[in-house]
Write a structure and sequence with these properties.
The protein is 62% helix and 8% strand. The chain has six helices and two strands; from the N terminus they run βαααααβα.
Length: 73
């Protein structure tokens, strides 16, 4: 898939665990884990908003597009 989630990078920079993100956002641990390991196949706008608020980031910092994969798709 050409869209990737950079949650693991953001969590590492902030030294947050999955538990920390769960407590700060109210998102399920399963959702956070799927995003952390870049296994998610879809993401709700509300989830994006909560994560961007916690990490004080823009959507393009949370999600990125791999141009090479996009051209092959």
């Amino acid at each position: 898939m050409p869209v990737h989630c950079n949650l693991s990078t953001l969590m590492g920079k902030n030294r947050f665990s999955i538990k920390d993100v769960h407590e700060k956002t109210g998102l399920s641990r399963n959702t956070i884990s799927n995003l952390y390991y870049d296994r998610a196949t879809r993401i709700d706008f509300a989830t994006i908003g909560k994560l961007c608020a916690v990490f004080n980031c823009r959507v393009d910092e949370l999600l990125s597009v791999d141009e090479r994969e996009l051209k092959q798709a």
